[in-house]
Amino acid sequence: MGKNKIFYGACVYPELWSDEVMVEDYDHMQRLGMNLARLGEFAWSTFEPTPDNFDFTVLERSLELTKERGIDVIVCTPTPTPPIWLTHNHPERLHVDEHNTRMSHGSRQHICTNNPYFRERAYIIADKMMEVVKKYDHVVAIQLDNEFKCHVGQCFCENCKGLWHEWLENKYQTVDLLNDAWGTDIWSQRYNAFDQVVQPLATPFIHNSALLLNYKRFQHEKLAEFVKEQVAVIKKHHDIPITHNTGVFFDIDNEMIGNEIDFMSFDTYTPVEHYENFVMNQETWRYVKNDNRQVMLLETSTSYNGHVQNYGILHDQGYVEAEAFTTFAAGTSAFSYWLFRGQRSGCEQPHGSVVSSWGDKTIGYDSVLKVSDLFKKLKPLISQTELDEPKVAITYSDRARSFIDNENGGVYQYKALMNAFHKLFLDLNIHRKLVPEGHDLSQVDVLFSPYMHNLSKDYVARAMDMVKAGGTWFVGPMTSDRTSEHLWHTDNGLGELGELLGIESAVQFYSQEGQTTGEAFGITSDLKGLNTFVDIDTDYVKGKVTSETAKDKTFIVEKKIGKGTLVYLGAHVSDELMKELITHYAGAHTINNVLETSDEVVVFNRTEETSGKLQYWLVNLSKEEKTIQLHQPLMDKLNDQIRQAGSYTLKAYDYLVLAHD
Amino acid sequence: MGKNKIFYGACVYPELWSDEVMVEDYDHMQRLGMNLARLGEFAWSTFEPTPDNFDFTVLERSLELTKERGIDVIVCTPTPTPPIWLTHNHPERLHVDEHNTRMSHGSRQHICTNNPYFRERAYIIADKMMEVVKKYDHVVAIQLDNEFKCHVGQCFCENCKGLWHEWLENKYQTVDLLNDAWGTDIWSQRYNAFDQVVQPLATPFIHNSALLLNYKRFQHEKLAEFVKEQVAVIKKHHDIPITHNTGVFFDIDNEMIGNEIDFMSFDTYTPVEHYENFVMNQETWRYVKNDNRQVMLLETSTSYNGHVQNYGILHDQGYVEAEAFTTFAAGTSAFSYWLFRGQRSGCEQPHGSVVSSWGDKTIGYDSVLKVSDLFKKLKPLISQTELDEPKVAITYSDRARSFIDNENGGVYQYKALMNAFHKLFLDLNIHRKLVPEGHDLSQVDVLFSPYMHNLSKDYVARAMDMVKAGGTWFVGPMTSDRTSEHLWHTDNGLGELGELLGIESAVQFYSQEGQTTGEAFGITSDLKGLNTFVDIDTDYVKGKVTSETAKDKTFIVEKKIGKGTLVYLGAHVSDELMKELITHYAGAHTINNVLETSDEVVVFNRTEETSGKLQYWLVNLSKEEKTIQLHQPLMDKLNDQIRQAGSYTLKAYDYLVLAHD
Amino acid sequence: MGKNKIFYGACVYPELWSDEVMVEDYDHMQRLGMNLARLGEFAWSTFEPTPDNFDFTVLERSLELTKERGIDVIVCTPTPTPPIWLTHNHPERLHVDEHNTRMSHGSRQHICTNNPYFRERAYIIADKMMEVVKKYDHVVAIQLDNEFKCHVGQCFCENCKGLWHEWLENKYQTVDLLNDAWGTDIWSQRYNAFDQVVQPLATPFIHNSALLLNYKRFQHEKLAEFVKEQVAVIKKHHDIPITHNTGVFFDIDNEMIGNEIDFMSFDTYTPVEHYENFVMNQETWRYVKNDNRQVMLLETSTSYNGHVQNYGILHDQGYVEAEAFTTFAAGTSAFSYWLFRGQRSGCEQPHGSVVSSWGDKTIGYDSVLKVSDLFKKLKPLISQTELDEPKVAITYSDRARSFIDNENGGVYQYKALMNAFHKLFLDLNIHRKLVPEGHDLSQVDVLFSPYMHNLSKDYVARAMDMVKAGGTWFVGPMTSDRTSEHLWHTDNGLGELGELLGIESAVQFYSQEGQTTGEAFGITSDLKGLNTFVDIDTDYVKGKVTSETAKDKTFIVEKKIGKGTLVYLGAHVSDELMKELITHYAGAHTINNVLETSDEVVVFNRTEETSGKLQYWLVNLSKEEKTIQLHQPLMDKLNDQIRQAGSYTLKAYDYLVLAHD
């Protein structure tokens, strides 16, 4: 997996088909110019039909066939689908959900990933597979498992109960410290011993928020532990980079998992109606690994997704091509379909593929051919450029998500909040990056921290270092109003941030539409949502409430600290005001002086490696024709011709690569 | 139950009332001209209050009272409501639903009908009852149980688990054959022994579709086995015909059950808003028993249905009379109310009846009187005619339903699809019959096979025999695209049908509204739904896609085979095009040359036995006045006067019997 | 708690805060003019962290601090939140809900209140607390527990099963009497022994309505028994009045509980959109205790309610003040916030309070200050007047509710029906009281009995005594149509009432909108709902059906009996007709001759103790300005000035006290 190498491919299931069919399919992939196959993630019962009875014939054969055809391979460990011998007569190994319902064999993820016997067998199968894999140098990556916790969340089995008590003891040392941290005197929740602490199963009303937060954290850490242990087994054999195909909706902490593996990959089936989610998805994973910035898109559909209980929606013609362009423009190094040949059995028969179960071209086949052409054209352009490193960062964090999962107030969902926030940066053509909490801020000029109910001490320290060095830290909305255990602060309404800002008082409440109004930067905005208003020295006030409710309270604070600026936004503001704020604090990072786009036309900045000049990779992710404005002549790299300054139209799903001449 | 005898009556519950009340009610029934009482289906605890302690006093008394009054009786076995002694302290005998919830005593159908002790006791009570019943020659039928599986579906108890494994072993012989048939290599589902095969209880995502299909089939077969065994017990005593009051929504395979009993009966509470469902209901059961074509309507309401959690909607005045007319016109030999005297206890207190718990006339009483009059008038007309045997058949099948239950795609429901399909035949006045898969096709000219994901080999063979002999077989939409185990075909997209048609390729996907358009027979139609498009020799093409999506693919194929025609419709088409197709292929079977009706006026063709002439029994099943056109003079049999050719209006719920003079 | 003393205060949680914080808060309460603190209801684990290890330091300290500051106290027993030692390793003590789901520690009400060990420990902690409490004479009341059954309903644990059988045996003596009373011959439900009677857990369809009704009654009685036993423990120590903070939605029988305690209290969080519910709430509890008429409002919010899964809606400015005025005007003697200092942990962090967890003023603080002022102003006015005793009574009954819970028909909810019914009295300015079934009717002139499916013999006897003495008893709609076991009557459709009226026949059914129409008192009304129509001697007919459906049946009957009048309304009528009926039968009890108000302006009549003159306490509970008309000059007591006859406007949430000069 050399630098700037890009991949185009599909997932294959050699365990499901005859050798003849697999030869036909690999030949077909080669003809399509594909250079990547992903395989193995569900094949445990083929590789080990009964305990310790290993058979990797199918794996080796596929590795041979792909090698002969110049197709690189990602080999996956098959741990999401344990064979029947792992759970038959062993209900205690099965996953138990939040309703105390025990899962059964027959689908995926039905086992508790914390079960010691499962882990033992998972490491053995991984170990055995790697003995095969290390013989092939065209295996470009190992994928762990498949979409961790895409179907299930936290497990409530008896084994987890014991681990939970252990985990708590490790974290708190004494149960009194736990009681203090969680505020368990409320409702007589107090525990006298760790082994009394409940798993948050059914109870008449809502559990303590600290209990819920910790149980989730416990489960996230245990999964990261499983990852770490499996990585250790694999690394004994070779140095092939290890990845995982994650997703934004899964009940995991991606940063924790990223810390254990070599690079992040992801799956996405976003329809054009949510193009901004598709783009954010491209940008969510790149900096989880601060060092290598490698990301692969490992699953997307040629046409539609779906299963027997949901017939998916067929993409518009052109959309898949636009997705592929976006993927490579965004610095993602692979674009891979799920799946090559349609599933004949199971429950995903009605899912788009390259060819059908009976080998005919599917409705998505034309798109596949077009992406083949595009892939050939982009390869050289990609190899000569690199995604420009943005100086504007937005923290995206599953830890922040867990607070909002806990306290949604009946209205909030972290992913939706972040999508809407991020879209404003797209609309403004601000060159941005999404970063995890642990991101190295030394290269960041402006950091946004929205929707983070709690700021860890470490995060604050690093952000303040950035501020002192001249950066801008924009905090809010809905940030720093809870402790790390999801309690209220008791010193002031905003904890450490409150001290940094020097607030005199704070008040928080949820405003309905029209209940509270504020003004800032000459813009009047309704302030609908869970807002925190403060009293503070008027020198620092940048936005004040104008409505009778909360009259004259402050909702925007700006304070110079060291060489930089700390900005606090306490309220949810209108898009108009939020765009003004982004422009005010991060406007230097736009490309609007060179070119301007309509909404739904997304731009990625890439730098030519030799000249150091910027390129603008544009894609129209809408069903409509859109207009763009060039303020200076630019070179159209896909057609090798100069485009003079002026107005151009971009057809639906069309794209452009523009370069400074 | 002589030939052409028709019945009018009600269900009675002598076990719930004093002797005085029952005498009053039977007298009342007699005064109303009723000649049918149904009784016994919930009276087990009265007949056998403790094990082996039998008391049939109430049954015998009712049989005496009815006999004296000339009221024929249907006696039901009381197996839907096992007494408390069958389940007290025996939770293992109780029905367990798909959420693994165990039922309790106190309602109906709370026991597992596969439990061996339950079956033993069911046969004993049936046996003992028949000793009483056989002494009365006015018992015209035995009803088994009541509305099998109207409240519950498949059972997941431990006993069923063992039976499931037995059933699988019988079906597949070796577990490898099962694995191959089900494609269990997917997701490592593979089983190494039959006793490992799970019951499809909770799992993180969807179970294998073959597993789901087979578990349903297993349960359906076990219920048919219960029927067969109970029938054998009863037949030892007498030859009274055995029936069951079924319904379209119950989780059973009616064809399987029909094979074990003498004739089908059904219950219906359809409101006028779904008059087409009421009519289809009349036509669903007649040919399940190919030999005798006897059907009874055993439950309908005098006014409204309902229970304590749902107050039903009161029928319009006139609707019940129109229902009764439709029932007899359609060849159904009984029209019977549920129930005569309102329930004083239980949960169905708010359900319409003939008289209330306290003996007063209910709001439905006027309707009852009107149907009494109608019944008197129709008796001679019915006795002189017989429902004309249609030559156009539509296959209606619970086996087909089980595939769509399994794969609804989030959009499909078999019953709704069939109702809409059947309604087009009503609208076009095509004389049609609904037939089971096993129907003898020798008397069929045109066979429609819609919504049958899988066609069995036997069905195809018989249909092709019909084609070769000169018939037309119209296949589709959504037919033959899955194997008998609910997998994709791998030879071609349509399996055996694909071979018969000689298709070159096939592609299937779900089209949203507006995504795909086609043209056939001069009509342009949106093709919304799960469609299969094929490539085939242009000689056979009758309809092609015109939209960019799937451009030029074929969706209607017509092929002459032997003396007949095989037609394949791959797509869901507009009503306009579907009506054109029906008219094209089955238009010879309409009566529109004699008379034409508006929608909602339904016509049944009956033949005078002596003259062999056709009669047209018309009923306006709408709230509005409707117009009909006579193209020639016809005799109005209810008024004994000639109606000249011309236009007539039919008031809401009015009806006519027209005969060739 | 002297006569006419009124209270203003808040709930406090000294077990959650440091001594410093509590001193600060009690000082603050004193400054705010508050004279009431409620505490202790969730503090069990603080008072008894391990079994028999008692520590009342926090309680004593708070009692000292409040005493010093002149703040009276309500001390609550902490039984809603048993410490972990009560349930750890003892799942059999936990509450089991109707889905057979066992609760867990960590929230509230997770234990079965019928568990003998729980009860033993509950009485011990209550006993120990009272030893402390009795030393303080500023403890003005003891509150039992907190909002009994606000989160859970009936319990289905194994222990309850045994108690259920015992309870049934006590009630019915023999199982045959139970079978007869419940009509269990239906569906072979018949029981041969009490220990066979099921708890109404999952069953395929609906349980017997008598079973459901009795299980609910059993649970309600057991809870009343818990109350009675706890009261006995407390009363051994002192005579401090005992109360409970109830609510209209809880699964309890408030009249039963009222019989065991000294006075009723209630909690309410009603928003202005349902101001009529807020007012009805004020009037629901006063006469539950016929003797003392003491009521306290113990919980309402300063601003909004809510929890982590629901951000509440912020009240309009002025609404809390209007609530406080309404509360005191309605004769309720306390207005107390939940809570003083916001919860830092648990799940109710986002709930309005007086000060936040960090001690800042909340968004509700201004309202708190305004109510402080109002409280000072009202104190003397309240002390000189008393709520006038209405002569018009409406029966409000949890027993009646239980019938409608059982048989909602998919459309009815008792509370909503009663709110709509009661609102008509508000709109008409009829001076009314809500009374329990057991209310002493000797002071009542007109009694309304709506929505009481069953009238007990005792109730009928007392109502008929009132009628004979000259009163008017207005019965219906939806009253007396079921037996006390929720069966139909079998003698006539209305049982004892039917006999009293002398009806000839009755028919009941549910009319959809537009299906049935009637006329009475010159008004034509649609009769939508579950109606009973009767045939009766025309002398008694006051309203007849005019539609084809049920043509000429009677829906209003009026019969003179003794010196009074018995009126029966069988149908749900329009508001217009219902207002006419109320005016006709209770119009003498309005104040419209003195003054008239718009809807949403609510009036309470209070009598000056010295002069015996009437005062009118008016409050505008709407968001809009409203108009009122004085027909004569009246003294404005809050401004000490005469208001001449004429029209006045009342701003949103404004209020007035008007007195005869």
Question: Overview of this structure, please?
Answer:
3 copies of one chain form a homotrimer. Chain A is α/β, with parallel strands linked by helices and 661 residues long. In chain A, 30% of the residues lie in helices and 21% in strands. The first copy, chain A, contains 17 helices and 30 strands. In chain A, the strands form 6 sheets. In chain A, strands 13-12-14-15-22-21-20-17-18 form a 9-stranded mixed sheet, sandwiched between helices. In chain A, strands 1-2-3-4-5-6-7-10 form an 8-stranded parallel beta barrel. A 6-stranded antiparallel sheet of chain A has the order 11-24-25-30-27-28. The longest helix of chain A has 27 residues, at 209-235. At the A-B interface, helix 2, strand 8 and strand 9 of A face helix 7 and strand 16 of B.
Shape of chain A: globular
Please tally the helical runs of chain A, counting DSSP H or I stretches of 4 or more residues: 17
The largest β sheet of chain A comes out as:
9 strands, mixed
Instruction: Give the class of chain A from helix and strand content and strand pairing.
Output: alpha/beta
Biggest interface, residues from each chain: A-B, 60 and 56 residues
Q: What is the alpha-carbon Rg of chain A in Å?
A: 26 Å
Q: How big a fraction of the residues of chain A is strand?
A: 15-25%
| CA distance, first residue to last residue of chain A | 31 Å
- Uncertain segments of chain A of ≥5 residues (pLDDT<50)? none
Strand order of the largest sheet of chain A: 13-12-14-15-22-21-20-17-18
Mean pLDDT of chain A: 97
**Number of beta-strand segments of chain A:** 30
* Quaternary organisation: homotrimer
Helix content of chain A: 25-40%
